[in-house]
Amino acid sequence: MNGKTVMACIEAAHATLKEHTEEIAALDQQIGDGDHIFNLLRGVDALLGLRADIEAEAFAPALDLAASKLLSTVGGSSGPLFYSLLHGMAKASAGSGDIASVRDAARIFAAGVDAVAQRGKAGIGSKTMMDVLIPVASRLAELADDD
User: Fold this and answer.
1) Considering 32, 47, 57, 66, which has the largest number of Cβ atoms within 10 A of its Cβ?
2) How many CB atoms sit inside 10 A of residue 42's CB?
3) Could you list the residue range(s) of the whole structural domain that residue 122 is in?
4) Residue 48 belongs to domain with CATH number
5) How many CB atoms lie within 10 A of CB 80?
6) How many domains in the chain?
């Protein structure tokens, strides 16, 4: 995997966020001011503007570049949390070259989720992104174990 893979994931996330903007905003309005999606889209839009730079990098440096850009463009607590996710994944994949298996991907994603949990001091049941990230990391690990 390389920066092109990271960019493909960013593009997929962007398309999904755009498709569900109104739904996400409505959910956020139930517990906050409803601006989470717009802050996140600002960050992902900034990543799209770094396409050539991200695609030119190896996997871990591409993740770190994306992490740094999110940190500087996404407001509130979300910037540092998304930075932690991507930076944690970058650290877990540094020096390993390509991701050779689903097991590698599961391990790297779990490291990113752990980094978010440490920064945010949150877990399952905290009514945060951890209520989604932790089960996804667990399910990915199960699928990897089942090959």
Assistant:
1) 66
2) 15
3) 3-145
4) 1.25.40.340
5) 17
6) 1
How many CA atoms lie less than 13 Å away from 28 in the CB half-sphere? 16
- Spatial neighbors of 10 by CB under 8 A, at least 6 apart, are 44, 47, 48, 54, 66
Retrieve residue 12's tokens: 């997929």
For 48-97, the DSSP string reads HTTHHHHHTSBHHHHHHHHHHHHHHHS-TTHHHHHHHHHHHHHHHHTTS-
pTM: 0.90
Instruction: With H, G, I as helix, E, B as strand and everything else as coil, classify residue 1.
Output: coil
Distance CA 63, CA 57 (A): 9
Distance CA 44, CA 91 (A): 21
8-50 per-position pLDDT tens digit: 999 999 999 999 999 989 988 887 777 889 999 999 999 999 9
Tokens read off for 48: 């799209």
Cα–Cα distance for residue pair 4/18, rounded to 1 Å: 21
